[in-house]
Specification:
455 residues, Beta-Lactamase, Alpha-Beta Plaits, 3 domains, 5-stranded antiparallel β-sheet, disordered N terminus
């Protein structure tokens, strides 16, 4: 992927990679001159001309390397063609066609075959062979072969170089294309990022999920599109990777092009040889939404499980869960706890007279009226039928009686109620406490209803 990023840079700045390669070729040619002059060589060599040509090649090569980002592609072609002329000049200035500068031809064809389309590469080959033909015609050969024979072998060798290089490049491009197709087919968002915080390469899933094009995402640091509340944590995860963590996994929120917030689940690792982070991000927004809806539904179901649907009060299951907690709290605080059962008097007759729907209205009205008379820490529970339980923590028997009197007096629609009250002795079970309150309620009804009896 890093190589693909370099090729993309070359497309944005034409001739950049080619200029570097041509610059290296020219500097290498100058090095060949230095090597040939340092080794034993034939007499009659025009050393000043060789040195002058080598210096020109060295300067041109250095300029190509330093200013490669400013070298346009046509100039790279021109410099590559000039390297062939330079190789011919070096051969001419050496006085004999011994072939020591023939490697410049090979390097030039390797560059042409690697960087340029095949038709352009063969145009360079034709030019180079033309220069070589002129050189062989004007320079004495040390071999027994004729200039034509040497030219034919040179043409065959360099053609093979161009063919093989082009084939290797085509094969590499095919492999890259297949990799890119797999890269883009992934439903996950794949990317690489550099130490400066910019995306280097992204697959098409980014545009499908977030709406940004690859160019838009690469143009700005990726942290700018992370939700502000998640930026510090995201930067910390990236810092951990560069600090030595082998792999990190985390979630953050990312801002899409349309302003929507997407949850991304990340898995990232650092390639130290490239100084790049390779990362995979899965869009889990829908999963998060479903999970939140499921949690809300579960909470609603749990609430319904402990809520009486008619009155909205806690039901008997809620009382069964709350009583042990109240017992434990009262025991720890060495406090007091009272429990009462309230029953609407003659409720069956009320139902028979007015109907069950009106009876349900009475139950709801009683729940509202009684609950409004309780303290904040008290709990009113729909126990079943027309019976309600009142849990009164931190309350003496006398205080509980006063509270129940308020409830009795507030009973709506001219109805009355009876109550059985029990004071917890810090030792008995919930069943025993409820049993005593139920016995007290039974006595209140036996004694004429519309009263409170304590047990």
């Amino acid at each position: 992927m890093f190589g693909a990023a370099k090729r993309r840079d070359a497309l944005r700045e034409p001739g950049r990679s080619e200029a570097r390669a041509v610059g290296a070729l020219l500097i290498g040619g100058a090095g060949l001159v230095a090597l040939s002059l340092s080794l034993p060589h034939p007499t009659g060599v025009d050393e000043p001309a060789l040195i002058g040509t080598a210096m020109a090649m060295l300067v041109a090569g250095l300029l190509c390397l330093v200013f490669n980002h400013r070298v346009p592609l046509p100039l790279s072609h021109l410099l590559l063609a000039a390297s062939a002329v330079a190789a011919g000049l070096l051969t001419y200035e050496s006085g004999v066609a011994a072939g020591q500068y023939g490697s410049i031809y090979v390097w030039a064809m390797l560059i042409a075959g690697y960087f340029f389309p095949r038709r352009v590469a063969f145009t360079h080959l034709a030019w180079l062979l033309s220069v070589n033909a002129v050189t062989l015609a004007v320079v004495e050969s040390t071999a027994a072969y004729s200039p034509l024979t040497r030219w034919i072998f040179t043409a065959i060798s360099l053609s093979v170089v161009v063919f093989l290089t082009g084939a290797l490049v085509a094969r590499r491009k095919g492999s890259d294309l297949r990799a890119r197709r797999f890269f883009d087919l992934s439903q996950d968002m794949l990317c690489t990022t550099n130490p400066e915080g910019y995306f280097v390469e992204l697959n098409s899933a980014w545009e499908r999920n977030l709406g940004y094009t690859s160019e838009e995402l690469r143009a700005r640091p990726f942290i700018e599109r992370v939700h502000p509340d998640d930026r510090e944590r995201t930067e910390a995860e990236a810092a951990d990777l560069f600090a030595g963590a082998g792999r990190v996994g985390f979630e953050n929120r990312y801002l899409a092009r349309d302003g929507a917030v997407h949850w991304l689940h990340w898995s990232a690792t650092l390639a130290r040889d490239e100084e790049l982070i390779y990362a995979r991000a899965a869009d889990v927004t829908e999963f998060k939404r479903v999970a939140e809806e499921r949690e809300a539904l579960l909470s609603e179901v749990e609430a319904l499980a402990v809520t009486d649907p008619l009155t909205g009060l806690p039901n008997r299951r809620a009382l069964d869960e709350q009583l042990p907690r109240e017992f434990a709290r009262t025991r720890r605080a060495d406090g007091s706890l009272c429990l009462a059962i309230l029953d609407i008097d003659c409720f069956k007759a009320y139902n028979d007279t007015h109907g069950h729907l009106v009876g349900d209205v009475l139950l709801r009205d009683c729940a509202v009226a009684w609950d409004s008379e309780l303290r904040g820490e008290d709990t009113l529970v729909r126990f079943g039928g027309e019976e309600f339980v009142v849990l009164l923590p931190d309350c003496s028997l006398e205080e509980a009686t006063e509270i129940l009197e308020r409830l009795r007096e507030s009973t709506p629609d001219g109805q009355t109620c009876s109550a059985g009250l029990a004071y917890w002795d810090l030792g008995e079970s919930a069943e025993d406490l409820l049993g005593r309150a139920d016995v007290a309620l039974y006595r209140a009804k036996e004694e004429g209803r519309d009263r409170i009896v304590a047990s």
